[in-house]
């Protein structure tokens, strides 16, 4: 849970100052004047993967220290829905994943994928084994692409929320945190970002980190596990790896640090082309760069692109890979025509109730509680308002003729109960009552995928295919999913790879 309060702005300022201290090279053990801390295994990052890795390394007999950049642990794992995969038949699941890899034209390491799926059998029992007594899990869906062969062998589970709380990764991470800090008494050094790996003759022997503006050297006798997430808060890396403008739904700590550290040692990099994400992140103040869950109270809304036209069935938009669907680039107009898109609706829809799920912001953390009548959000300018369709079109810079024609067609569909995009028109309502509204929406990331490639022992591999001695990874850092991302795969991967990496590092000679 959160140890301290922090705003996005002061975190960014602080981390930029710390980053300025960091050099671009690895540190050499011979230059280390003094080791400030020492353990068999040093885990960098205290999210799901870091928590799982710390537990597993400790249980395999190693002493462990965890370094966490933020004043609190949890990372995207805590911010997430906390859903993870449980596999019943790993062979069928392998067929399914190969199907996903084929249609997304993605690289997979078959040995690694099979191991992951084998390890995902019985995940529900394993998660319950470290959660408090009385914890219940619910199955909330099957594989993302049900038409593929083998899809039935994969299910998504999450912790059943207590006291009507929204489902989130909070209870999952709290169970990990309690196992690490309370039950195993593993030290977690908060506000201590890892900056450089320390190397002795090519072997990783420790981590240089920043604590209270000073450098500390943390010795790792058996191994370092990089579990510090991906690069979603690193604008340069995003520009290099992702298409178009993206917003962030996750926590601010993940800036690709571990990827850069591993690259310095020659790590091979894969799956950087993808991020899990939805298409509807929208701005709601400085603290909340993107909100995830528009929940329109009536069917009186449409989604238009920058030309003012609809292009899909709005009710069918998928949450986890829709991100990819809007990232097209039009080489004639030289624009991303769907970045942003606009949710357009009228006064009847505005007055019918809350337009967004109440929990907004870093999903579950640093929340903004949306008002019941949407008026403060209109006053804040997050929702744009105009007295006419023409004025609204001007506000959002789309063709007034196109927008008017789109709305006319939509209203006619509400009458005829037939929609050319296949929307359920029993629920459709006309957009006719002024004032009119628009919310600009952007692709928004649920983390970013990829990073250093790992082998089946979670060792980070170099570009020649050799493990970098004593360097391991877990979780989203080095994720196998890329554009194959689907709900449940990432939290599952964090837990599984943490468990594998912790054991492998602890048993390293
Ligand atoms: C809104 C949202 C919903 C999601 N829902 C799901 C879902 O239901 N199911 C699913 O499978 N996936 C989901 N995801 C994705 C999933 O949450 C992540 O992929 C996964 O939790 C990553 O776990 P991790 O342990 O690798 O990284 P994180 O949990 O992000 O932990 C990384 C930690 O490393 C720390 N760190 C970063 N740099 C450093 C450094 N230099 N030194 C020390 N510490 C550092 C960070 O502060 C952070 O605490 C969701 C993501 C979001 C944002």
- State the distance separating the first and last CA atoms: 35 Å
Count the strands?
A: 22
CATH architecture of the largest domain: 3-Layer(bba) Sandwich
The biggest sheet amounts to: 9 strands, mixed
- CATH fold name of the largest domain, please? FAD/NAD(P)-binding domain
CATH superfamily of the largest domain: FAD/NAD(P)-binding domain
- Compute the number of structural domains: 2
- Tally of individual helices: 15
Radius of gyration: 24 Å
Small molecules in complex: flavin-adenine dinucleotide
Q: What share of residues is helical?
A: 25-40%
Low-confidence stretches: 1-24
Mean pLDDT: 89
Overall structural class, as computed from helix and strand content, comes to alpha/beta
CATH C-level label of the largest domain: Alpha Beta
Shape: elongated
Q: Indicate the proportion of strand residues.
A: 15-25%
Structure description:
- This protein is α/β, with parallel strands linked by helices.
- It has two domains: 38-239 and 254-270 and 452-509, FAD/NAD(P)-binding domain, CATH 3.50.50.60; 277-445, Flavocytochrome C3, Chain A, domain 1.
- The protein is 29% helix and 22% strand.
- It has helices at residues 8-21, 48-59, 75-79, 90-104, 110-119, 123-130, 170-183, 235-241, 257-264, 322-325, 347-351, 375-379, 389-396, 400-416, 489-506; strands spanning 27-28, 37-44, 64-67, 84-87, 137-142, 154-159, 188-189, 194-200, 203-211, 214-226, 247-248, 269-270, 277-281, 301-304, 341-346, 359-361, 367-369, 384-386, 436-445, 451-452, 459-461, 467-473.
- Strands 1, 2, 3, 7, 8, 9, 10, 21 and 22 form a nine-stranded mixed β-sheet that branches. Strands 11, 13, 14, 15, 18 and 19 form a six-stranded mixed β-sheet that branches.
- Helix 2 (48-59) runs parallel beside helix 7 (170-183), helix 2 (48-59) packs parallel to helix 15 (489-506) and helix 4 (90-104) packs across helix 5 (110-119).
- The longest helix has 18 residues, at 489-506.
- The chain is elongated and about 75 Å long.
- The two termini are 35 Å apart.
- The model is unreliable at 1-24 (pLDDT under 50).
- Flavin-adenine dinucleotide binds next to helix 2, helix 3 and helix 15.
- Flavin-adenine dinucleotide (FAD) binds next to helix 2, helix 3 and helix 15.
